[in-house]
Amino acid sequence: MRGGDTVTERLREWAPLLAPRETALLVVDVQQLFTQVLGPRLYPPVADVLRQLQRVVDGARAAGVPVVRIRVVVPEETRSDVWRRQADPARRDREALAPDAAGVAFHPGFEPQPGDLVVTKHRYSAFFGTPLDSLLRPRGVRTVVVGGLTTDVCVGTTARDAFQREYNTVTLADGTAEQTRERHEAGLATLSARFGLVCTADDVLGVWRGPPARAST
Prior knowledge:
By secondary structure, the protein is of the alpha/beta class. The chain has a single domain (about 5-75, about 105-210), classed as Isochorismatase-like (Rossmann fold, 3-Layer(aba) Sandwich). The chain has nine helices and six strands; from the N terminus they run αβααβααβαβαβαβα. The protein has helices at about 5-15, 30-35, 45-65, 80-85, 90-95, 130-135, 150-165, 180-195, 200-210, and strands at about 25-30, 65-70, 115-120, 145-150, 170-175, 195-200. Strands 3-2-1-4-5-6 form a six-stranded parallel sheet, sandwiched between helices. The longest helix is centred in the first third of the chain and has 18 residues, at about 45-65. The protein is globular.
């Protein structure tokens, strides 16, 4: 957390930046490789994360916030020597992230819906080598809410890149997970300290719904 600020104080400051007309929701790599193969090892439990993330997707759609479905696919021609050495030394990822692999399919219930934007990436960041930035700018998007899998790799890398492209960046603390609790919490701490706001699904949904109506007298 930045300085002595509380999440409540920062959320109050950020609320105008989360206006639906200037915000997009980035749903990162909710694919079967990560939910079903890695899922049992993730923290927080992936079922809980997906439940919160679906609530935010539903809230975004109700508020008119664009939903961007992002997935990672790494075809053979994009596998450089550097990528091969670092990302798939045991060849597991080479097979699991190939275009025809079962694991690259969206998790059931997280498939793109009518009106959603879809971005396919070949590296960790959803901005690297993709049209994501050019999809957001013409829509007047100034703030992105980021969730999905996993906290310290694709979600965190996408959030950092969003900040460096001058987007106000919000990461969902309960809408992402990592292979250990330590990596999850450390990743969120860094994002909160240097790259934007970290808050919960309820925090974001509360802003999009607006303040409760005052009772008439």
